[in-house]
């Protein structure tokens, strides 16, 4: 999704061009815009390991249906903490108040180390304006260092002519660059 949004905004970072907003509930370290700079590595963004701390992505006038998501662990001199069990959830909302579970990962060790990429498939979610990554509990402490997020599924968006589009961002992507393939459909 973020790669598609970047393409639709002339290659600009989705956060810095204000195509999306990001909210963090309780502490982080680093520049959040770096989470969408896939060609950069080692920038050290970290989410404070506090129970129920989250990063929420606001797609504004767009809504997305999530089918998979990718997280790349970061690198820090003390470790990214992805090598410990991470108890997290992916949730969706349309009002930023009531949240529905999309994917639940208790005591997850899939990433397992620094500077690793993992993609999780999930059941296709309903359309949501907001998607968040929430730490349900903590196992260690410090910061959960993350290099980038990417979401896959479909996005419903309106263009300047008020034509509604349904874009499918498949999680089959180029391995080297992690660029999703985009399919475009017009909704009638």
Main attributes of the structure:
Jelly Rolls, 1 helix, 5-stranded antiparallel beta sheet, 188 residues, globular, mainly beta, disordered C terminus, 12 strands
The SSE string, one letter per element, is HEEEEEEEEEEEE
Quaternary state of the chains: single chain
Mean of all residue-level pLDDT scores: 81
- Helix share, percent: under 10%
Ends: how far apart? 22 Å
Q: What is the gyration radius calculated from CA atoms? A: 16 Å
- The CATH H-level superfamily of the domain at 21-151 is Galactose-binding domain-like
Main sheet: strands, sense, barrel: 7 strands, antiparallel
Structural class assignment: mainly beta
Going by CATH, the architecture of the domain at 21-151 would be: Sandwich
Q: What's the total helix number?
A: 1
Overview of the molecule:
It is a single chain. The chain is mainly β. It has a domain of 131 residues: Galactose-binding domain-like (Jelly Rolls), CATH 2.60.120. The strands form two sheets. Strands 2, 3, 5, 8, 10, 11 and 12 form a seven-stranded antiparallel β-sheet that branches. A hairpin with a 5-residue loop joins strand 10 and strand 11. The C terminus is likely disordered. Keywords: Membrane, Transmembrane, Transmembrane helix.
Short recap of the structure:
The chain is mainly beta and 188 residues long. Strands 2, 3, 5, 8, 10, 11 and 12 form a seven-stranded antiparallel β-sheet that branches. A five-stranded antiparallel β-sheet has the order 1-4-9-6-7, with no helix packed on it. Helix content is 4%, strand content 48%.
């Amino acid at each position: 999704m973020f790669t598609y949004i970047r393409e639709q905004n002339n290659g600009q970072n989705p956060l810095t061009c204000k195509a999306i907003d990001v909210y963090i509930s309780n502490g982080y370290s680093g520049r959040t815009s770096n989470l969408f700079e896939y060609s950069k590595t080692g920038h050290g963004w970290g989410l404070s390991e506090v129970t129920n701390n989250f990063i929420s992505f606001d797609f504004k006038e767009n809504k997305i249906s999530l089918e998979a998501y990718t997280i790349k662990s970061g690198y820090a001199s003390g470790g990214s903490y992805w090598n410990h069990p991470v108890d997290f959830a992916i949730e969706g909302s349309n009002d930023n108040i009531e949240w529905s579970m999309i994917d639940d990962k208790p005591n997850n060790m899939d990433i397992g180390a620094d500077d690793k990429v993992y993609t999780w498939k999930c059941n296709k979610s309903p359309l949501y304006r907001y998607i968040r990554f929430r730490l349900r509990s903590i196992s260690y402490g410090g910061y959960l260092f993350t290099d980038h997020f990417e979401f896959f599924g479909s996005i419903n968006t309106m263009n300047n002519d008020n034509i509604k589009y349904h874009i499918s961002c498949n999680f089959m992507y180029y391995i080297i660059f992690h660029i999703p393939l985009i399919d475009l459909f017009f909704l009638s």
